[in-house]
Amino acid sequence: MAGSHRRLTSVPGVPGSWSFGRNLEQIRQTWRRESIASGWSRPHDWWVPEVDVLAAALSRASTTFAPGLGRPPLDAAGRIGAAVPACAGLGQARAEAGVGLAEALDDLAALYRTLPVGAPPLPAVRAFVESWADVWLRVVADAGCVDPLTELASRGYLRARLTELYRAAEQTAERVPDRYRLVVVTLEAADQPEGRPGWRLLLRRVAVAEALREAFPGGETLAAVAPDRAVAIVDRRLPDPVNRLREVLAGRPGVAPARVTTAALPERVVGLAELLAELGE
């Protein structure tokens, strides 16, 4: 979910008719206030599209939203059923944004406290937790700090470092994409049938790592994101980083063919999961 998000005017996967406008907007605003009051630590990154999907699933049969004013109970067969996949989607989104399980569940509970049922039903909680865990297990599997072959940072460390940059930016008026970008080097398939291609790739990866350290000696975060791809977090004020890396690579035999490009960082931290997934392909 890279870039800035747009408020939904229609919600896929939520059957039936429901009033977008005021009803959904009030649910969203009331939920956000309750969540922040309960300790949500990142107010600027609370909203994701999955928030609207879940709110719509819970509100589709209503035309008004008035917490605490005696609205009829939720229909167990209808709205709870619709909420289960919506909760699963929100659990995944929260995990991808790096939100811990306790804080994510507190946020879900904050929503249901604004509704007549008072607490999320077990099927919805289970779907939320399972989806959160599926994402988190992948993060944990990638949580080593250093790639053992190249001694570049791992993709897990890259994610943590980028998350720190977004957190620091919350204290200033500076936007992360305005200050930083990624320089990406991708090893293209080499047209050399002789020898063992797997062994050659290992040697090329080591050479790329050495080239990155030579091109960017100023403390930039350098990371391996795929077997054939590595990146550097580069300050936009650094002059011509792409040509700098290309020149270093050109002086190292056995690396070519390699492609050097740049990648823009997303507007918000929730977009990191999609970006890193694309880089890892």
Give a verbal description of the structure.
By secondary structure, the chain is an alpha+beta fold. The chain folds into two domains: 21-141; 155-280, Alpha-Beta Plaits (2-Layer Sandwich). 49% of the residues lie in helices and 9% in strands. The chain contains ten helices and four strands, in the order H-H-H-H-H-H-H-E-H-E-E-H-E-H. It has helices spanning 21-37, 49-59, 76-96, 101-113, 122-141, 155-169, 176-179, 197-215, 241-250, 272-280; strands spanning 180-187, 222-226, 229-235, 258-263. The chain has a four-stranded antiparallel sheet, with helices on both faces. Strand 2 (222-226) and strand 3 form a beta hairpin. Helix 2 runs antiparallel to helix 3. The longest helix is centred in the first third of the chain and has 21 residues, at 76-96. The two termini are 16 Å apart. Residues 1-22 and 61-78 have low confidence and may be disordered.
Order of helices and strands: HHHHHHHEHEEHEH
CATH class of the largest domain: Alpha Beta
Number of helices: 10
Largest sheet: 4 strands, antiparallel
The counted number of beta strands is 4
Fraction in helix: 40-55%
Mean pLDDT comes to 80
Strand content: 5-15%
CATH topology of the largest domain: Alpha-Beta Plaits
CATH-assigned homologous superfamily of the largest domain? Reverse transcriptase/Diguanylate cyclase domain
Low-confidence stretches: 1-22, 61-78
Shape: elongated
